[in-house]
Design goal:
heterotrimer, A alpha/beta, B alpha/beta, C alpha/beta, B: alpha/beta, Hypothetical Protein Ychn, Chain: A, 4 helices, globular, C: alpha/beta, 5-stranded parallel beta sheet, 5 strands
């Protein structure tokens, strides 16, 4: 089956991103496909390159980046939610005259249409939130 | 339920709103999903349950908060072909509200009617 | 339908709301703080036991264990791991996440 996954909360504050990540891994282990992981509301904060969690704690952002690299996952953060919360890639930073960009590897910024498309194209869309 | 999912029959999308406006961003950002989603020609319904019914309350005046009053957008949903708005009767009653207190025409339903509506959906997004 | 509930029943009315809309024969998966609803001898145990007559209820094992509640599981609630979570999603046409 093809899965869409929606993550609506940021790393650490809520368990949502952890649960979504473990779920995503289990989906792949079971031989299913992940069409897209979409990050909305504070979920866009899962894409920050600037996170430095304590050494003995999991690095949630890195977990997602590595899972994406290993399985060629499409990790998308919503552009509107990202702009509100200050997540930018290089193109966005240039467009808005910001002096930095902060997107972690494996993530891309796009519109809410990507979430709707995931709902249409996937057999199951599962949301994780707070 | 849709038989095909790829470039074929429209899927039934239900957006479930359970949170009050302004205290958190969920109400506003959920509406943004509904509006963007409307362009995809799927079969869209929106449900208001619990404090979500407060999103439809008349008379919202946010000037004192310096926050955008987004409630007029509910009035525009019809222009986007989103006309199936369902409100949970029990949630309205618990809050001392009735249909006249709401901004837009809605269908007030019982829990079992809402459950039936939910059961017929392909995709449910809860905010 | 598969419903997921991730909030504690003592802190939020999420489970109560979910059960109002969960039809006979559907499944409810308790995850994250929602697993506190899977315990015996609490103020909500009776409500959950009654619900078991109409719906199947599951709890995510890792979340129960993380919270030290693994020895308090109510009879009739089935434990699943993340693989079991995936299987539940596959087995039901739609998932509704009550957050």
């Amino acid at each position: 089956m093809k899965f869409g996954i929606l993550v609506n909360e940021g790393p650490y504050t809520h368990e949502a991103s952890d649960t979504a990540y473990q779920f995503a891994k289990a989906v792949l282990e079971k031989g299913h496909e992940i069409f897209r992981v979409f990050f909305y509301h504070d979920g866009v904060n899962n894409a920050t390159r600037l996170t430095v969690p304590p050494q003995d704690e999991r690095n949630i952002v890195k977990c997602w980046s590595e899972l994406a690299a290993k399985h060629q996952l499409d990790l998308v953060i919503c552009i509107a939610a990202a702009q509100r919360r200050g997540l930018m890639d290089a193109a966005e930073a240039k467009r808005h005259g910001k002096d930095a960009n902060n997107i972690a590897p494996g993530f891309r910024i796009s519109g809410l249409g990507q979430l709707i498309e995931a709902g249409i194209q996937a057999d199951r869309l599962v949301a994780f939130g707070g | 339920m849709a038989d095909e999912t790829q470039g074929g029959v429209a899927k039934k999308f239900l957006y479930v709103n359970r949170r009050a406006p302004y205290g958190t961003i969920y109400a506003l950002e959920s509406l943004e999903v509904v509006l963007i989603g409307a362009a995809f020609e799927q079969d869209v319904s929106v449900a208001f349950i619990g404090d979500g019914v407060y999103q439809l309350a008349k008379g919202q005046d946010t000037r004192g908060l310096a926050v955008k009053n987004f409630s007029p957008a509910f009035g525009a949903l019809e222009d986007y072909d989103v006309s199936k708005l369902y409100v949970d009767r029990e949630s309205l009653l618990a809050r001392g509200l009735n249909e006249d207190d709401l901004l837009v025409p809605v269908k007030v339903v019982s829990a079992s009617e809402m459950a039936e509506i939910m059961d017929g959906q392909d995709v449910i997004l809860s905010f | 339908m598969l419903h997921t509930v991730n909030k504690s029943p003592f802190d939020h009315n999420t489970l109560e709301t979910c059960l109002r809309f969960a039809r006979q024969g559907s499944a409810v998966l308790l995850i994250e703080d929602g697993v506190y609803a899977a315990l015996r001898e609490t103020a909500v145990s009776k409500q959950v036991q009654d619900a078991l007559k109409r719906v199947s209820i599951y709890a995510l094992k890792s979340d129960l264990e993380a919270r030290g509640m693994q020895n308090r599981l109510m009879d009739g609630i089935q434990l699943v791991d993340y693989g079991g979570f995936v299987d539940l999603v596959v087995a039901h046409n739609t998932v509704q996440s009550w957050v």
